[in-house]
Amino acid sequence: MKIALKQVLLAGMTAFALAACSQTTKEQTNEAAQSAADDTTANAQKAGDAVENAADNTAAAMDRAGENAEAAAANARQNTGEALEEAGRDMQKPK
């Protein structure tokens, strides 16, 4: 009878130990999942910031390109006007 009682107690203690391990495992799994979710959120924020910075940089580059195009067009008008004036002077010279 003593052996049967010991076996029952041992089985009960083993079940209790396994239950405690299961709870620890659940907690660790939940902590790992929460950590992964936090990392995902942080990475999504970083990606969003990078996209926003890229958009800002693109807008600034487009503004500079527009300014350069305006300056080039003004220079072209000036050069064309000067060339026309010179051609007109050449046409007025006696031959």
- Annotation, overall tally of beta strands: 0
Distance between the termini: 139 Å
Which residues sit in consecutive blocks of at least 5 with pLDDT less than 50? none
Oligomer: single chain
Number of H- or I-type helical stretches: 1
The overall average pLDDT, rounded, is: 85
Largest sheet: none
List SSEs in N-to-C order. H
Radius of gyration: 41 Å
Kindly estimate the percentage of residues that lie in beta strands according to DSSP: under 5%
> Helix share of residues?
over 70%
Broad shape: rod-shaped
Structural class: mainly alpha
Structure report:
With 95 residues, this protein is mostly helical. The chain is built from one helix and no strands. The chain has one helix spanning 2-92. The longest helix is centred in the middle third of the chain and has 91 residues, at 2-92. It is rod-shaped and about 140 Å long. The model has no long low-confidence stretch (mean pLDDT 85).
